[in-house]
Design brief:
This protein has 15 helices and 19 strands. By secondary structure, the protein is α/β, with parallel strands linked by helices. The chain has a domain of about 325 residues: Metal-dependent hydrolases (TIM Barrel, Alpha-Beta Barrel). Strands 1, 2, 3, 4, 5, 16, 17, 18 and 19 form a nine-stranded mixed β-sheet that branches. It has an eight-stranded parallel β-sheet with strand order 6-9-10-11-12-13-14-15. A two-stranded antiparallel sheet has the order 7-8. The two termini are about 40 Å apart.
């Protein structure tokens, strides 16, 4: 007995057509007209769209950051993702300073025991010693085909050009992809110190410490190294015109370069959000910073003309009003503790959050919520607005990332033999985005009060119903690790 989806409009990255779709076990086995019902469970999709489950390749669940950890983990974060239509994500393993890549992977595998949706890992290299570079080929045995290097966060995660270039040379030979956080960390460190010395400590000065020019410069530098080495490059969370133009020049030159942006960079501005009074601007602190309305238009054009291949979230949420309960005492005795367990002791308890930087923007934990809202917001402002076709939406949300990161056609499409990650999408249902109703573990929402039309009313993961309206059917441990293939295509 399978699950037969009847009378839905199937949307892929290339086509839209009316058909039935049969799932047997965990995979799609038939797509066609008038598939016989036999003894299958019938899902009537009349008036609904059928789309592949979304893929978000840029998340930070349970991430250590300064004196705290990001709120959502592989439990709450996965539930929130699925309610928003995302059924697969790739999280970033962080190599510990002085440790090995395998040390980081061991820690993230422990976090992922809570998994409720499917997931993969990128490997973030923070300490590129010779023995660590020699360890890179072993990541292929672990199904990890992407390396992340940060050109920012000096004295924390930042690597220099020597390490970046060497990693690119190694990755090119192995068929791996190099991802970069592109900001000039040396310049940012100088600007930050100057602003703080001048008494400019409010959240709005976070943007002044990381202007568009340093993102554009670092992006151009990484693009040139990609051209020199032939290593595929993927620039994460692009925000502004100088960076987009650097990527566009590289693509025009035939370099193997690609990029993503994040949902927040289409909607938030320094003037209206980071500059909000009463420390409200701290809610919107992320790196690179949010920009201007002009940059919003630049990003929409980059999606439409194919300069950008994916819209992710960089989901990394922190309480705005955190630090509740005896967290300092608890943290002193649990240096690598389970913050979710701490908060579970008492409903009023919270780990530290954005308030850590109340008197110093440089200490505000960097990161925003968005894992649940990504597909809803982009459908409303992309498809409903006429900026994107439904097929472009599927490409950006699912198919492109599956191809780039070595998961296609198992993930990212509705095709015979693919995993049955299926969204039953109601294009007419109305919904108001709000922190009062979202499933993310955070006390605010970037899109509070936004009216959207269209959302998933059922979400299936490998043929199992996870979301049915407002009912959750997922279970910890049911999410599967997805090993990925090297030598993935360039888009």
């Amino acid at each position: 007995m399978g699950i037969l989806f009847k009378n839905g409009l199937i949307i892929t990255a290339s086509d839209m057509f009316q058909a039935d779709l049969l799932v047997e076990g965990e995979i799609i086995t038939q797509i066609g007209q008038n598939i016989p019902a036999h003894d299958h469970h019938i899902v009537d999709c009349t008036g609904q769209y059928l789309m592949p489950g979304g893929i978000d390749v840029h998340t930070h669940l349970d991430l250590p950051f300064g004196d705290t950890y990001s709120n959502d983990d592989f439990d709450t974060g996965h539930r929130a993702a699925a309610f928003g239509g995302t059924t697969t994500h790739i999280d970033f393993v962080i190599q510990p300073k002085g440790g090995s890549l395998k040390d980081g992977l061991t820690k993230w595998r422990k976090k992922a025991k809570l998994a409720q949706i499917d997931y993969g890992f990128h490997m973030t290299i923070t300490d590129p010693r010779a023995e660590v570079l020699a360890e890179i080929p072993t990541m292929l045995d672990e199904g990890i085909t992407s390396l992340k290097l940060l050109m920012a966060y000096k004295d924390m995660y930042m690597i220099d050009d020597d390490a970046l270039f060497r990693c690119m040379m190694i990755a090119k030979e192995l068929g791996m992809l190099v991802m970069v956080h592109a900001e000039n960390g040396d310049v940012e460190a100088i600007l930050k110190a100057k602003l703080l010395a001048e008494g400019k400590t409010a959240p709005v000065f976070h943007a002044a410490s990381r202007p568009p020019e340093i993102e554009g410069e670092a992006t151009n530098r990484a693009v040139m190294m990609s051209g020199l080495t032939g290593c595929p490059l993927y620039v994460v969370h692009m925000t502004c015109e100088p960076a987009i133009e650097a990527l566009r020049r590289g693509r025009a030159a035939g370099y193997p370069v690609m990029g993503e942006t994040c949902v927040q960079y289409f909607f938030l501005t320094v003037e209206d959000h980071l500059n909000a009074p009463d420390f409200i601007g701290a809610k919107y602190v992320c790196s690179p910073p949010i920009r201007t309305k002009h940059d919003h238009a630049v990003l929409w054009r980059a999606l439409q003309d194919g300069t950008l291949q994916h819209v992710s979230t960089d989901h990394c949420d922190f309480w705005w009003d955190g630090g509740k309960g005896p967290w300092q005492e608890w943290a002193a005795t649990h240096p690598d503790g389970d913050w979710a367990a701490y908060e579970a002791q008492d409903p009023s308890y919270r780990r530290p959050g954005k308030e850590l930087g109340r008197n110093n923007f440089a200490k505000i934990p960097n990161g925003l919520p968005g894992l649940e809202d990504r597909m809803l917001v982009m459908w409303e402002h992309g498809v409903n607005s006429g900026r994107l076709t439904p097929s472009q939406f599927v490409a950006l949300m699912a198919t492109n990332p599956a191809k780039i990161f070595g998961m296609y056609p198992r993930k990212g499409t509705l095709a015979i033999g693919s995993d049955a990650d299926i969204l039953v999408w109601n294009p007419q249902v109305q919904h108001t985005i709000s922190a009062a109703t979202h499933h993310m573990r955070v006390d605010y929402n970037l899109y509070e009060g936004m009216q959207i039309r269209g959302k998933p009313i059922q979400v299936y993961q490998r043929g199992k119903l996870l979301v049915d309206g407002e009912t959750w059917h997922g279970q910890n441990g049911e999410g599967q690790y997805i090993p990925r293939e090297p030598f993935a295509p360039l888009l």
